Amino acid sequence: MAPTARQTTRPPVERIGPIEWLRENLFSTPFNAALSVIAMAIIYILVVPTFRWAFIDAVWAGDSRDACLAVNTGACWPFIENRIGQILYGFYDEAERWRANLTLFLLAAGILWLTMPGMRGKPLVAVLLLTVFPLIAYVLLTGGFGLEIVPTYRWGGLLLTLVIAVTGIVLSLPLGILLALGRRSDLPAVRIASVLFIEFWRGVPLVTVLFMASYMLPLFLPQGMSADKLLRALIAVALFNSAYMAEVVRGGLQAMPKGQTEAATALGLGYWQTHALIILPQALRLAIPNIVSTFIGIFKDTTLVSIIGFFDLLGMIQAGTSDAHWSTPSTAFTGYLFAGAIFWIFCFSMSRYSRHMERVLSAGERR
Fold first, then answer.
1. Do the domain assignments include residue 18?
2. Alpha helices per DSSP H over the chain
3. In a domain, 347, yes or no
4. Does pLDDT of 161 surpass 70?
5. 179: in domain
6. What domain range is 295 assigned to?
7. How far is 255 from 290, CA to CA, in rounded Å?
8. Which of 69, 74, 199, 359 could be joined to 58 by an S-S link, Cβ 3.0–4.6 Å?
9. Is 220 exposed, middle or buried (0-12, 13-18, 19+ CB in 10 A)?
10. Cα–Cα distance for residue pair 239/213, rounded to 1 Å
11. Cα-based distances in Å from 315 to 53, 84, 89, 220
């Protein structure tokens, strides 16, 4: 008896095995196979010795450089262990570090609330993060209202890096949106002012801006008036990056079809209603990759504040490597590896979440 269709038809394959995946993605053609082999060889040459130096041959316990010099073949992790307090908080008073921990906990809780799917009250949480949280963070970190005053020159380490990065990110996005709208405005004065602002800040390096804010700006202030050095650096970082953010947002606005504005006008919507309800949500969604890339750049550029006397994460590690108590051939490399790992974790997390947001916001457009 001839086999029936039910007996001869195989179910569709939804998943492939590892061998088939390798064949399709790495060894599909002789050229791809050659490239895959070369790439694997390079990875082996670079990764294996690094992994061996950082973990297998590393020193994990000790109170001074003597423990690392006794082996002298791998990373000196006791340096990180003994310096972890300064690496995370700088010279912030040890008895008051709970205030920094509470501030970072509130920030992390708010961000998780906004990023986790299914959470209710996200608009309210966003408003609280933008309005109430900065005031709470300022009081907790600086002092007052019964808390001991901790001057900003004692801030440092990862704490200072996060303060500068978060401030720059939070301020640069709304400023960038306003500048992008101003550059496309029909009012000549607004358009020219926005163009001059954007081109001025994009035409000078951030190092120059930080030097101006730190050393030259006080010369232009009235007699007897002064501004906190960290505050000047925060404003400089925010203004500098708002110019780049403006161009990113402008790219998203230019990608919008003209019919969107015409349809909003036909419905009787005004300029601000059109942009707030129709144009900006779509433009920002299109610009998510570039916006997140700018955020990542802001986070990494925080290391430049060390040139004006701040001890951020990288600055604290550099200061620690100059201590003769920990002077070994591997101390500096260990510190830079640790700092690089922290920066990679933050930047990779932002990148992956942006990919997730792209998939979620474009779900209705996928076929």
1. no
2. 5-8, 18-25, 30-51, 65-71, 77-89, 97-115, 122-142, 157-183, 188-202, 206-211, 217-220, 229-254, 258-266, 271-274, 280-286, 288-301, 313-321, 331-361
3. yes
4. yes
5. yes
6. 69-92+150-360
7. 13
8. 74
9. exposed
10. 11
11. 24, 13, 12, 29
pLDDT of residue 241: 96
Task: At 53, list the tokens.
Answer: 């130096």
For the chain, how many structural domains are there in total? Answer: 1
**301: CATH:** 1.10.3720.10
In a domain, 104, yes or no: no
294-309 burial string, b = 16+ CB within 10 Å, else e? bbbebbebbbbbbebe
- Whether pLDDT at 117 is above 60: yes
pLDDT at residue 29 tops 70: yes
Measure the CA–CA gap between 209 and 91, rounded to whole angstroms.
25
Phi, psi of 150 (to 5 degrees): -120, 105
What's the pTM value of the predicted model, to 2 decimals? Answer: 0.88
3-class DSSP state of 144: strand
Written as six digits, the tokens of 341 are 């790992």
